[in-house]
Amino acid sequence: MFGCLVAGRLVQTDAVQVSPDKFVFNLPDYENVNHVVVFMLGTVPFPAGMGGAVYFSFPDPASGGPVWQLLGFITNDKPSAIFKISGLKAGEGGAHPFGAASSGSPSAAQVGVSVEALEQLVQQIPVSSAAVSTVDSFLQFTQKMLDSFYNFASSFAVSQAHMTPNPGETFIPSSCILRWYENFQRRMAQNPNFWKN
From the Swiss-Prot or TrEMBL record, what is one GO molecular function term (predicted)? Predict the structure, then answer.
């Protein structure tokens, strides 16, 4: 019914059913994981009016027991979600429906899906550090990408005195790229959504 994906690892579709409406994926070496994607396989939909609350559990360094945190939810209308888990803090768990379901391994975490009523899902508040898809993060990525591009292109710059003629090569003045980049930054500062137009 569910799948779990972590970058650089095989897709997991072998959720352990710990109760009729609770499913758990084991996630070894969670310290090296930044994001996790939970999705429906498309084979079995949620019953009408139901969805899945997605939780993340990792061993509490103090007690050794599992600490569960609500990440968000998936539904038939929104069958997948990506969550940032690298910013979650140990010891900041909350109420969860999984009871004592735990891997018992100090280096393993778990991703849990609890089938619940949609009315209940929309009222739950996930941990704020789990959200990843915001416009701000996209804009930050774009800014960093353009900085990197400008720095990379500038590393090849040579003065006209040091240029060797090459009829097969086209040269673009670095001042042209710099003007475009400064214009882009100005437009982003004035209207962060200008790129949608």
Answer: Hsp70 protein binding
CA angle 60, 61, 65 (to 5 degrees): 35
Name the token pair of 151. 């720095």
**Could you tell me the two tokens for 179?**
């003007």
> Model-level pTM?
0.64
pLDDT at 13: 93
The C-alpha atoms of residue 110 and residue 126 are separated, in whole angstroms, by 16
Q: Report how far apart, in Å, the C-alpha atoms of 16 and of each of 2, 24, 36 are.
A: 10, 5, 17
Which of these, 104, 112, 87, lies nearest to 2 by C-alpha position? 112
Q: What is the 3-state secondary structure (H, E, C) of 1-23?
A: CEEEECCCCCCECCCEEEECCEE
Residues of the chain with pLDDT under 70: 89-96, 99-107, 128-140, 192-197
Cα 130 from Cα 35, distance rounded (Å) = 9
- Mean pLDDT for all residues in the chain: 81
Q: Closest Cα partner for 112 from 24, 38, 1, 16? A: 24
Contact, 109 vs 83, CB < 8 A?
no
H/E stretch holding 184 reads helix 174-190
